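Why do we care about 3D structure at all? Because function follows from shape, and shape follows, mostly, from sequence. That is the central idea of this module. The next example makes it concrete: a single protein chain, its amino acid sequence, and then its structure expressed as tokens.
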Amino acid sequence: MAKTKWFTAPEEDRSKSENRMKHKLNVHKNTLILIAGIVWAIAGFNIIRIGLIAYRGNLTWWHGLLSAAVFGAFQLFVFGKMVQKHIDRILQYEDERQNFFRFFDTRAYIIMAFMMTLGIGLRVSGVVPNVFIAVFYTGLGASLLLAGVLFIANYIRVIRQSKKSA
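And the structure:
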């Protein structure tokens, strides 16, 4: 028995619907830089919050210095490079409109998932002392937050440049 249109849409209707949905998720490629900034800033703020909560009763100048070292290492070797890499990639897209989720590439999503899994696992397992969580999360979160701020600052720079050239 043949299926009626009520149960399944003909192929052409289905593809039109899928295309409309894809286009609803598209944003100007410059907006991807802003999205990345917001995502990293929120993540950084949340991780700093977890670190500061873990610091309760454990904050010493030495721990603060260690958090600053963690911040510097992540900024120098990871997030500082990552910000520029993603901005360059986004700006090189030929099409002006891109899918909302293209603010990161596949590798960055995998790294983010790994970091989240490892971080949650360390906290929940109790394998590391609370002071380690405090020191590490505060430094890591500050570096993530700065990465978010750098993305947003670059978004503003790109928008200003595009207005000048228009």
